[in-house]
């Protein structure tokens, strides 16, 4: 059986492939692509925050509110960029 940590690490490869395709295709709005890349930043922040929560407090990241909230800020930012990017693309399409 594959552990959740291994599965999490393996899931990075399809996501990197997705990023490569949408970046090269030129079909996605630039702001949305930035948002998708910010999701990687969220992951990059969440992993060390989770390790710190476990080592310092003996708890999972979800149980240490200030660390969890700080990490979730990056997910919120990525979502905002994605929404704004597609919103802008829809508005430009309507104007054309």
Automatic annotation (TrEMBL):
<dbReference type="Pfam" id="PF12159">
    <property type="entry name" value="DUF3593"/>
</dbReference>
<keyword id="KW-0812">Transmembrane</keyword>
<dbReference type="InterPro" id="IPR021995">
    <property type="entry name" value="DUF3593"/>
</dbReference>
<feature type="transmembrane region" description="Helical">
    <location>
        <begin position="66"/>
        <end position="86"/>
    </location>
</feature>
<feature type="transmembrane region" description="Helical">
    <location>
        <begin position="6"/>
        <end position="22"/>
    </location>
</feature>
<keyword id="KW-1133">Transmembrane helix</keyword>
<feature type="transmembrane region" description="Helical">
    <location>
        <begin position="34"/>
        <end position="54"/>
    </location>
</feature>
<protein>
    <recommendedName>
        <fullName>DUF3593 domain-containing protein</fullName>
    </recommendedName>
</protein>
<keyword id="KW-0472">Membrane</keyword>
